[in-house]
Every structure is written in C-alpha cells, then in structure tokens.
Write a structure and sequence with these properties.
Number of strands: 17
Number of domains: 2
Strand order of the largest sheet: 4-12-11-10-7-5-6
Distance between the termini: 48 Å
Shape: globular
Order of helices and strands: EEEHHHEHEHEHEEEHEEEHHEEHEEEH
Largest sheet: 7 strands, mixed
Bound molecules: pyridoxal-5'-phosphate
Helix content: 25-40%
CATH superfamily of the largest domain: Type I PLP-dependent aspartate aminotransferase-like (Major domain)
CATH topology of the largest domain: Aspartate Aminotransferase, domain 2
Strand content: 15-25%
C-alpha cells in the first residue's frame, strides 16, 4: 500500500528529538524553529512530559466519556489558572479543526442562527465547517460550499460594522485568529478585536477566538487575543496543548450553557491526552515559558529588523514572520540544507518562526548568524 500523497515533504527523516533540536537518521543535528508546525511548546521529549505520559500509560491510557475522568477536572482547573479564564468550561477533543468545528456548532446551537463571519487569509482547519470559514478555495470541496459564511477584510472595522448592521440578527459567530498563522503571520489589531467583542454583544453573536496556533503562550500571553483586553466567548486550542500528543479543546464562557449530547467525541479527553496536557501546563508555569517567549521573541524581531533584505518583520512572542524578497526565495531551503535549521513558511515568500517556547538565547543568536550568512551567500551569487 502507498501513502496518499498529499504532503510536499522535506527529504529528511527525523529519528530523535530533544528540546529545540532534532536529529536525522544519519546523525545530523538540526535546530528546530518550526516545532512541527507550532506544536512543540515546551520542547521535544521534555523529561517531565515523558514521565507523566509513561506513568499514566502504566495505569490506564483510555476510557471513553461515559465514566468520570478526574484528570479532565484537574486539567480544567490548571488551564483555568494558567490562562486566567477560571470561570470558563472545558470541552476536550482531538485536533484544531475539531475544536473549531465544535465552537462553530456550539455558537449556532446557542444563538439558533446560521451565519458566520470569517476573514480574508484565515485558516481554521480542514473539516467541514472549519474549512468553510477558511479563506482558501483549494481546500474547500464542493460539499463544503455554503452561503452561511461571510468573508470580510481582516482588520477592517468599518466593513465589520456595516456587515453587522445589515445582517446582525442572522450572525451566529465571528471566528478570528489572534495572529493569522497559515495566512502569513498577521496580527489582529487590538481595536479590531474590541470591535468584534462589542458588536457580538450588541447583536447577540458569539466571539470565537481561534487560538489553535497563536494560543498556549506562544504570543507571550496565554491567548494572543488577550492583548486586546477583552474576553472571547469561546477559545479554541490544539497544537501546543499536548506538545505533540494529539489533544485539543475549547473553553466556553459561563453564559453558554451545556446540554447533554450537544457535543461529543470518543477519544477526546482520554486519560493519556489529559496527562500530556497537564504536563505541558506544569512546564509552561514552572519554566516561565511565556516570559521567555516575550524575551527571546523581542531579541529575534530586533535582530531580524536590522537585516536590510528582510521586510515587514512581524508577530508577537515566538510567533514571528517576515517577507523574503524574490531574489532570496531559496533562503528557507538553504537554511535547512546548509545550516540545518528548520523554519516554517507561508505563501508567497514568508518565513515563519514557531519554535519551542523554551528557545534559548544562544540558539536564537545562532539562527541570526546563520540567516545573515545565507543571505550574504545568496546576494553574492546573484551579483556574480
Ligand atoms: C489557526 C488554526 N486553526 C486551526 C487549525 C487546524 O488544526 P488541525 O490541523 O489540528 O486540525 C490550524 C492548523 O494549522 C491553525 O493554524
């Protein structure tokens, strides 16, 4: 049997990982500033995370949501404490798309409405509703096409207000990434998020903060939406939540009340997933990783801004993007091939940095040296 070939892949086989490093099958070491697409939050194979999962595995790995699972309660308490949303309610699932799917569905149940506002360059996942609020025609199958989604320009307060004025009573939800990831690292303006909050309040719609990529401390705050100083009604989360163990969830404001059977999943919130997720929060707290994300992120952005060839350095904490001019389009590839550094990308010609929140200064410095070296090489060969 062949693999279904949907992923363009790098010709590297990773067999080992530790902290911000990974090693291939030839023993070559790489600096990982991509984190397997923003997933590695506390560092690869963190000893506390490994121990927590191993110990849980010896006890019980899985039972379904038909019995009491105290680990879920512990996780909800810890998540409330670390995120500051102590009065929210937690629903656990398995992936980012599933989290958004559940958030949108819940908003529709809660309001009795069908229409959703989403934004240009958004990415919310591949499942049916999640993909229908994703602004990329290539991902939307005919069966996912719907008139229920209204796409508006990102960060355009006037367009948002006008849309609510004409369709307000039909709008179930507004879904927005605090920092667009797949779309190329675009930060939602604080004032834009505050407008979403007040318009949702005015028209009775649900504000869904997609924090799948920009959440879990990556921006330096637990949710990047927190920079706006207002609360969303539902936050969705996944990637960094399990540090590679598949676990996702939504947290729901207290005014949205649960009903039996409204949401559900077989695997979501299993014992092993909860152990992994608890280990992540314990480490985020203990190692003060959000503070580290602020500090190292600031260093990286300052250094990148000083490199004249790189444009529009942007982002928050350790979610950083910058534009690479066409003549340096091989930069990402060369960083991997020559410097053994993994980075992320977005089209066209955007490099994305999504490292572990524990990224050390010396590794950030090494990256800056390496990127300068590769830029100089590309510039000099273009001149020749
Ligand atoms: C903002 C955002 N939402 C949702 C998703 C979908 O997550 P998953 O791939 O776990 O379904 C992603 C994945 O990249 C994402 O970046």
């Amino acid at each position: 049997m062949n693999l279904f070939d949907v992923y363009p892949i790098n010709d590297v086989t990773i067999v080992k990982a530790k902290g911000t490093y990974v090693w291939d099958d030839k023993g070559e070491q790489y600096l990982d500033l991509y984190g397997g697409h923003a997933v590695i939050s506390i560092g690869h194979t963190h000893p506390h995370w490994v121990k927590r999962i191993e110990e849980q595995l010896e006890k019980i790995a899985f039972y379904s949501n038909s019995v009491k699972i105290p680990l879920q309660v512990q996780l909800a308490e810890k998540l409330g404490k670390v995120s500051g949303k102590t009065d929210y309610q937690l629903f656990l699932c398995n992936s980012g798309a599933e989290a958004n799917e559940n958030a949108l569905k819940l908003a529709s149940f809660h309001t009795g409405r069908k229409k959703v506002i989403a934004f240009t360059r958004s990415f919310h996942g591949r499942t049916s509703l999640a993909v229908s609020v994703t602004d990329n025609k290539n991902y939307i199958a005919p069966v996912n096409e719907t008139d229920n989604v209204i796409f508006l320009p990102f960060n355009d307060e006037e367009a948002l207000e006008a849309c609510f004025k004409s369709n307000g009573k039909e709008i179930a939800a507004v879904i927005i990434e605090g920092i667009q990831g797949v779309g190329g690292i675009h930060v939602a303006d604080d004032s834009f998020l505050r407008s979403i909050r007040s318009l949702c309040d005015q028209y009775g719609a649900v504000y869904i903060a997609d924090s799948v990529q920009c959440g879990y401390g990556r921006s330096g705050k637990f949710f990047s939406h927190d920079f706006a100083g207002v609360n969303a009604d539902i936050y969705t989360m996944a990637k960094g939540m399990g540090n590679g163990f598949p676990v996702a969830g939504i947290i729901i404001a207290p005014h949205i009340k649960p009903k039996h059977f409204q949401l559900g999943t077989t695997f979501g919130g299993n014992h092993l997933a909860c152990a992994a997720a608890l280990a992540v929060l314990e480490i985020i707290e203990e190692e003060k990783l959000m503070g580290n994300a602020v500090m190292i992120g600031k260093y990286l952005r300052n250094e990148l801004e000083a490199i004249p060839q790189l444009k529009n350095v942007r982002g928050r904490g350790l979610m950083i993007g910058f534009d690479v001019p066409e003549e340096l389009k091989d930069l990402k590839k060369n960083l991997l091939r020559n410097q053994k550094i993994f980075t992320g990308e977005a089209k066209p010609n955007v490099i994305r940095l999504l490292p572990s929140l524990g990224l050390k200064k010396k590794d950030a410095e090494q990256f800056i040296e390496s990127i300068k070296e590769e830029i100089n090489l590309l510039v000099s060969t273009a001149v020749l």
